[in-house]
Write a structure and sequence with these properties.
The protein is α+β, with helices and mostly antiparallel strands and about 260 residues long. The chain is built from six helices and 16 strands.
């Protein structure tokens, strides 16, 4: 990887007042470069805004531009601590982490949609009726019928997000696996999910979509009334996130596994 140019910084911020105030202060101090010519994008907000920034700028990030987040939200798992001081020094000393998004192709009653997900792709029931979903991995049906509130496929970067709340496993970044995790499974009762190779191609099909409608979500982007969803890793996209030394994503994931 070529050395990053930290002289050209593009600041982006969520709509929240604190993030907008931080945007004003930082651009006055360090300047503002266009995203398409910047060496690094500094995202000001929470994890949701970071995910949106990554998804919206995938073509630029594929070229090697890095993203460094500073927390102006609530959780901030993907963010660094906010400070106006010594930003270029922090960027130069930051540790780089590579994440690869998932590509979702959803066939719904009203069309076909492609979305990218950094954390996870999820299917959810739309009504009080439990969802009935079949699971195919690499062309072979692995579970003919899952009865549950839904199911998700999480990346290592997203394994500590909704996947962890659904009692899925926490995955180290270098593990090259994805977590397939049911959401409130009713049957099979003892099925707790599966770990899949990162190059696996997963197809989730909605059974009885008229009576039991299902929606699909790529991170926070929802599509209703889906008939089937195909998910695979986007091998063309290697996105670089920067974290302060000793606070990298690997460390955060490891620390999460030892938290009560």
């Amino acid at each position: 990887m070529e050395p990053m140019d930290f002289e050209k910084i593009a600041f982006v911020a969520s709509e929240k007042a604190d993030a907008q105030n931080a945007l004003t202060a930082l651009t006055e101090r360090y300047g503002q470069s266009p995203i398409d010519t910047a060496g690094v994008i500094v995202a000001l907000g929470g994890d949701g805004f970071m995910l949106r920034t990554l998804r919206q700028n995938i073509p630029i990030l594929r070229q090697g531009t890095a993203v460094y987040g500073m927390n102006q939200g609530t959780i901030g798992f993907l963010m660094n601590e906010y400070s106006q001081d010594n930003l270029r020094q922090r960027l130069a000393q930051a540790e780089a982490t590579t994440v690869r998004p998932l590509k979702m192709t959803a066939i719904a009653k009203h069309g076909t949609f492609e979305q990218m997900a950094i954390n996870e792709v999820s299917l959810f029931r739309q009504t009080q009726q439990a969802a009935h979903i079949s699971i195919t991995v690499d062309g072979k049906v692995r579970l003919g019928e899952l009865i549950a509130d839904g199911i998700l496929l999480a990346t290592p970067a997203g394994s500590t997000a909704y996947n962890l709340s659904a009692h899925g496993p926490v995955i180290p970044l270098g593990a090259d696996v994805l977590a397939l995790t049911p959401i409130s499974a009713f049957r099979p009762r003892r099925w707790r999910g599966a770990l899949l190779n990162s190059n696996a191609k997963v197809r989730l099909e909605t059974l009885d979509p008229d009576k039991r409608p299902v929606s699909a979500s790529a991170d926070n982007s929802d599509i209703r009334d889906v008939l089937s969803v195909t998910i695979e890793q986007d091998t063309d996209s290697a996105l670089t996130l920067l974290f302060d030394a000793d606070h990298g994503l690997d460390e955060k994931i490891l620390r999460e596994q030892f938290t009560n």
